[in-house]
């Protein structure tokens, strides 16, 4: 995956990474959902953003601080994208955690929007390995954190209501 030098991948993956940087892609998706999706879109947007925020805290604020892992060696890659990599710990992938959390939090509320978000989510995960920013296990851990964050955000209202009553 990392050394895949396809014109298709070279043309598609860098713009996906740019869009996902600083969670811009997910904020834009939330804005579109909230503006055009009625009550369902607004609820999906809020849940998605909350899931993404929890995933970011867990991945970048907690896990990256606990696990110091070097990025994959530059020698493994034949393309130039490897030069533009973060200096932070490789483990876990915060981009993947945010993408998966957003998508997994949105999908139960609005399945069509969740399905649409799944496509860029998968592309973000692929891009993180292809660009040399992460090992596949970093991406898998980011996905697990994203799923856990989405589950926590979706369960929180029920738990709070149960606690109050």
UniProtKB/TrEMBL annotation:
Q: Which UniProt keywords apply?
A: Cell membrane, Hydrolase, Membrane, Transmembrane, Transmembrane helix
Q: Which InterPro entries match?
A: PAP2/HPO, PAP2/HPO_sf
Cite the Phosphatidic acid phosphatase type 2/haloperoxidase domain residue spans from the record.
Answer: 47-154
Which named protein is this? Phosphatase PAP2 family protein
Annotated organism of origin: Streptomyces toxytricini (Actinomyces toxytricini)
Q: Report the subcellular localization.
A: Cell membrane
Q: How does it sit in the membrane?
A: Multi-pass membrane protein
> Matching PANTHER family, A to Z?
DECAPRENYLPHOSPHORYL-5-PHOSPHORIBOSE PHOSPHATASE RV3807C-RELATED, SPHINGOSINE-1-PHOSPHATE PHOSPHOHYDROLASE
> Per the database entry, which stretches of residues form a coiled coil?
none
Q: Classify the source by domain of life.
A: Bacteria
- Gene3D superfamilies listed in its UniProt record: Phosphatidic acid phosphatase type 2/haloperoxidase
